[in-house]
Each structure stands twice: as structure tokens, then as C-alpha cells.
Amino acid sequence: MATVRCPDCGDDLAVPPDARSGDLLECPNCAGLALRLREDEGRWSGTLAHRVSCPDCNEVMTLPEDARPGDTIRCCGRAYRLTFEYGVFAAEET
């Protein structure tokens, strides 16, 4: 069975047999942490999939891979600016 290593806790996580590149895999040890899976020539890797909570409704949104501080995201009909501090993103009202 294929596995990927969680970059936060270091545990090896089993890749589901039906997984495809771009899928998200939750780490059961790290609260709210997911890995974005990539398959290249039969080898799997996982990178951190950043998430933010909507300041209004608390919906958790997975950010695109190319998200950067200062980018705008939308939820609840409002726009929020992404900030990045201490290794995590946050959404702030614009």
C-alpha cells in the first residue's frame, strides 16, 4: 500500500486505492490538517493544503495551491483578504 508522510507530525498516512493527484487526505493526528496528494510515475507525495475559516460563518475553505498573502477569497457574499503569519493563513475582512 502506498503512503505519504505528514509534514507536520511525521506519521506515514495510507493513500486510498482510488486516490488521484490533487485529492486531499486528512491527517488523523493533526487537527484540521490535510495533504494535497500528487502521483508521479507511481510514487505518491503530499504537500500541506492550507485552510482558512470564514470570519462570518466559520466554514473551512481549502485554499488553492498558488494562494498568497494579499489574495482575495469570497464566502457569505463577502470578500476577505488572506494574511499569513506563524505558518498559517487567515481571512480578514477587506
Outline of the structure:
This protein has 94 residues and is mainly β. The protein contains no helices and 10 strands.
H and E order: EEEEEEEEEE
Please indicate the percent range of residues in DSSP E strands (runs of 2 or more).
over 45%
Largest sheet: 3 strands, antiparallel
**Domain module tally:** 2
Decide which structural class fits the backbone.
mainly beta
Oligomer: single chain
Describe the protein's topology.
Blueprint: E1 3-5, E2 12-14, E3 24-26, E4 34-40, E5 43-49, E6 51-53, E7 60-62, E8 72-75, E9 78-85, E10 88-93
Antiparallel strand pairs: 1-2, 3-4, 4-5, 6-7, 8-9, 9-10
Characteristic key phrases:
three-stranded antiparallel sheet, elongated, 0% helix
Can you offer a commentary on this structure?
With 94 residues, the chain is mainly beta. It folds into two domains: 3-49; 51-93. It has strands at residues 3-5, 12-14, 24-26, 34-40, 43-49, 51-53, 60-62, 72-75, 78-85, 88-93. The strands form four sheets. A three-stranded antiparallel sheet has the order 3-4-5, with no helix packed on it. A three-stranded antiparallel sheet has the order 8-9-10, with no helix packed on it. β8 (72-75) and β9 (78-85) form a beta hairpin. The protein is elongated.
